[in-house]
Write a structure and sequence with these properties.
By secondary structure, this protein is mainly α. It is built from 20 helices and 2 strands.
Length: about 425
């Protein structure tokens, strides 16, 4: 729990706040039929909203040969002002700090003093105030002999804490009773049972080095939507687009253009009443739909269609086929323990567990959003998994070559 709180404080320094719980399973859906915004207008609104002062010149080609005196005065005034900027997460950081044991302050305080925008409400907190420019006195034994350790970045101080390295902590946890499993010395084997297993599960079909069989193909599902089940032919066609996807990514600065759309998409979604955390997880839950959304925003229809059209795809049905394939591949490769975690979230046990922690309603809601996204990442139909199964090896190799990120959008999340 202590490590979770530390991590959460660091996240708050860069993350926006969220509110309201999720009951809708489709909250991460992407509307591929949305009206495409005018990028130049959206960029201007974004810069005006994000700026702490007027940029005056939006583009360098609009800059005159002589510097504007009035604008120079604004810049000088802004640069010489010592007043700190407000941090939207200040109250939440303060609440988290007050729940931590004071022994942890020397490892967190120096970092907080380097963060722009934090006011005295946090920095003058007793125990935090005294840590400014102070190196922690208690260092893990394994790290004490490292030369020049005192010059490490304050962001690394948390890893110097002895408790992180398993040394004795001031918090004592109850010890679990060791109940060893009693295994009989002799195990009786029923020959009839073994014969039945060999009949129903022939070794030549399930051995590790067996020859792969040709997949039985069902017809392609053209013009697929998000509810269309995958066929093996769909998966094979999707794999056939990988070479073209690589080419598209590395020509005409497309990769950079796609990446630059990330903040604009989040800004646009917030303007339309969507919470920032939901917009963030959309790209993780539906990466391919996010790519197509970006392609439409950039006006790259023809260029992208030329790539996927060789396999008979249109933009939207490629996006749905791609997302379902990647999701089924992720579920297919997920460890057995993942199914237990999914069931915990699906049955609402995770939300009940959060109630036992001393979290603010905002923190609890944010973790609930994360749980709902996790549930979406590891949910796929048996039909889709069966369609992906014969191509799992190819998909793994292709995805590695394509990279885990496609223009800033996570194509495949870790298991």
């Amino acid at each position: 729990m202590v490590r979770f709180v530390i991590f959460f404080i660091l996240i708050l320094l860069v993350s926006p706040a969220t509110a309201k719980t999720i009951d809708d399973a489709h909250i991460f859906d992407i509307d591929l039929q949305e009206e495409t915004p005018v990028l130049s207008k959206l960029q201007k609104e974004y810069h005006e909203k994000k700026s702490q002062y007027s940029w005056h010149y939006q583009f360098r080609w609009n800059m005159p040969s002589q510097f504007d005196t009035g604008f120079q005065n604004i810049i000088n005034e802004f640069g010489n002002t010592e007043k700190r900027l407000d941090n939207a997460n200040e109250e939440r950081i303060l609440q988290m700090l007050q729940r931590l044991p004071k022994e942890m302050y020397p490892y967190i305080g120096p970092l907080l003093h380097t963060v722009r925008g934090l006011s005295g409400k946090v920095l003058d907190l007793p125990g935090i105030k005294e840590t400014k420019n102070q190196f922690p006195k208690r260092i893990a034994r394994d790290l004490q002999d490292i030369e020049y350790l005192e010059f490490a970045s304050p962001s690394m101080y948390i890893f110097l804490m002895p408790e992180i390295w398993g040394e004795k902590s001031s918090v004592e946890y109850p010890k679990l009773k060791n109940k060893s499993l009693q295994i009989p010395h002799k195990i009786r084997i029923n020959p009839e049972f073994i014969a039945t297993v060999e009949k129903n599960v022939p070794a030549e079909k399930f051995m590790l080095n067996r020859q792969s069989e040709e997949a039985e193909f069902s017809p392609r599902n053209y013009n697929a939507d998000k509810n269309t089940p995958l066929s093996k032919a769909d998966v094979k066609a999707f794999i056939g687009t990988f070479e073209g996807l690589n080419k598209f990514l590395h020509q005409n600065q497309n990769e950079m253009r796609l990446m630059f759309l990330e903040p604009l998409i989040k800004f646009y979604d917030r303007q339309n009443g969507e919470k920032p955390i939901v917009s963030y997880f959309k790209a993780a839950v539906n990466p391919c739909q996010t790519v197509v959304r970006k392609v439409k925003w950039l006006g790259k229809y023809d260029e992208f269609q030329k790539v996927i059209g060789e396999q008979g795809f249109g933009l939207d049905d490629w996006a749905y086929t791609c997302d379902k394939t990647i999701k089924a591949y992720r579920v297919f490769h997920a460890p057995i323990t993942m199914s237990s975690m999914v069931n915990i979230v699906r049955k609402g046990l995770y939300d009940k567990m959060l109630l036992s922690y001393n979290l603010t309603p905002q923190d609890r809601e944010m973790l609930h959003y994360q749980a709902q996204a996790f549930l979406q990442l590891y949910t796929a139909s048996k039909n889709d998994i069966d369609a992906v199964r014969p191509f799992a090896g190819q998909l793994g190799k292709k995805l590695i070559k394509l990279g885990n990120q496609y223009g800033g959008t996570p194509f495949i999340m870790p298991y």
